[in-house]
What we know:
The protein contains 4 helices and no strands. It starts with a helix and ends with a helix. By secondary structure, the chain is mainly alpha-helical. It is flat and about 55 Å long.
Amino acid sequence: MRKLLLLLIVFCFFYISAFGGDAEMPLINKRQKIQQHRIHEGVERGSLTKREAKNLRKGEQRLKNNVMKAKEDGKVTNEERKKVNKRRK
């Protein structure tokens, strides 16, 4: 039973590392999730108007498109990472 559990854990680790997709830019991906949550909370609390939220979401979508473009060839170079980080500010 232990061998089966260990085998399952090892398989999951390799599956996630091979197909996770977030390994190239984990900080950007984490930031995007946090920003989406903050935008939603701002609308719910009334501190953001619908128009402001729409503009913020557009900016987040542009960032997501930049990240996807950087990941297109399967490898994010340092130069691509710098461009994405510069554009997110």
